[in-house]
Amino acid sequence: MTQRTIVITGASDGIGAAAARTLAEAGDRVVVVGRSEEKTQAIAKELNADYFVCDFAELAQVRTLAAQLRDDYDRIDVLANNAGGIMGKHQLTVDGNESTFQINHLAPFLLTTELMDVLTASGAKVINTASGANSFGKLDLFDLNAQHSYSTHRAYGTAKLANILFTSELHRRFGEQGITTAAFHPGVVRTNFAADSTSPWRHAYKTLANRFMLSPDQGADTLLWLINGTAGTDWVSGAYYYKRALAKANAQAYDAGLAQGLWEASEELVAG
């Protein structure tokens, strides 16, 4: 079997790191991307892997990352858009976008589209880490920065809903060019998720509730299943999964017009 090149964002911790370890052990060429230099370098050293540091709160860094990946790799077999997180109070990034929306949706959207020539030439899989939190999201194309109505939980749910809409529209636009794609919910995983935020959710990850959460290896199961499986045989391109099965998402996730509108709005927001 030809060695695959697999790029995983958010790979310095949690399910990204767990997936990276499993794939590297199986012989894949794993490229780890993270926000923390120290943690990302540590994982890369452990796996003898290449690594890049990128803060998704700054789109210029995402463009630089995409350029570095294009320069260093002739092909990318899998792009796992796994980086993300829940923030706290309403705040804008240096690019002028609501931070939760940018970090969870706009940054991976930009990275994917900047790499599209390499991805299509490679017949790549693009796997997007969404969340069951999409169920309480509400996407308003006229208020993507949540200026009129904001709550920490809804902002996160909306960003995860955007991940699913992005997945379906990515399939519609590029499926015939060889791209296969899926979004998935990893479950509630025992990680440092929300640790750096002001969200009340950060407390659950430090209390007794922590012991009832999934391990990172358990949370990475569906991600690995999608990466190692075959679209059209094992799973359906453009769909949303949980526990290796098709999952029901927010009703807005099935609105093709909304998916197209989100793509077009996202293009405008990252163009700046």
In words, what does this structure look like?
With 272 residues, the chain is an alpha/beta fold. A hairpin with a 2-residue loop joins strand 7 and strand 8. Helix 4 runs parallel beside helix 6, helix 4 crosses helix 10 and helix 6 packs across helix 10.
Number of strands: 8
Strand content: 5-15%
Helix content: 40-55%
Task: Give the count of helical stretches.
Answer: 10
Report the order of strands and helices.
EHEHEHEHHEHEHHHEEH
Order of strands, main sheet, comes to 3-2-1-4-5-6-7-8
> Quick one: biggest sheet?
8 strands, mixed
C-alpha termini separation? 42 Å
Principal-axes geometry comes out as globular
SSE-based structural type? alpha/beta
List low-pLDDT spans: none
Instruction: Write down the overall mean pLDDT.
Output: 93
Q: What is the CA-based Rg, rounded?
A: 17 Å
Topology:
Elements lengths: L4 E5 L4 H12 L3 E6 L2 H11 L2 E4 L5 H14 L5 E4 L17 H16 L1 H7 L2 E5 L22 H23 L5 E6 L15 H4 L11 H4 L1 H8 L10 E4 L2 E2 L9 H15 L2
Parallel strand pairs: 1-2, 1-4, 2-3, 4-5, 5-6, 6-7
Antiparallel strand pairs: 7-8
Helix pairs in contact: 3-4, 4-6, 4-10, 6-10
Fill in the keyword field for this structure.
272 residues, alpha/beta, 10 helices
Question: What's a concise summary of this model?
Answer:
With 272 residues, this protein is of the alpha/beta class. Helices cover 42% and strands 13% of the residues. The radius of gyration is 17 Å and the shape is globular.
